Amino acid sequence: MKLRYADDAANEIRKIDPDSALTARTIRIMVKQGVIPSIAAGNGRRRLIDVDILVDYLSNPTKYAEKK
């Protein structure tokens, strides 16, 4: 489990794929929409994202669409 804030999660994705168009804003939107799970941190406004789940979602989004 690699928990990161959205900015750091986007950087982790860029390490895997340097040409990735995924931004921290896109990750925040996916969290807000409930597409990927997150954990509240601090006062609850910041969210931690498991990078492994994010990568899994990006690899197979239909797997997560069935849960909705």
Report on the structure:
By secondary structure, the chain is of the alpha+beta class. It has helices at 6-16, 24-32, 51-59, 61-65; strands at 3-4, 39-41, 46-50. It has a 3-stranded antiparallel beta sheet with strand order 1-3-2. The radius of gyration is 11 Å and the shape is globular.
How would you sum up the major sheet? 3 strands, antiparallel
* Binned strand content: 5-15%
Question: What overall geometry do the principal axes of the alpha carbons give?
Answer: globular
Strand order of the largest sheet: 1-3-2
Radius of gyration (CA) equals 11 Å
Q: Helix and strand string, N-terminal first?
A: EHHEEHH
Number of DSSP-assigned strands: 3
Residue-averaged pLDDT: 91
Structural class: alpha+beta
CA-to-CA gap between the ends? 23 Å
Low-confidence stretches: none
Helix percent reads 40-55%
- Tally of alpha and pi helices: 4
Give a quick set of tags describing it.
3-stranded antiparallel sheet, 68 residues, globular, alpha+beta
What is this structure, in a nutshell?
This protein is of the alpha+beta class and 68 residues long.
What is the topology?
Elements: E1 3-4, H1 6-16, H2 24-32, E2 39-41, E3 46-50, H3 51-59, H4 61-65
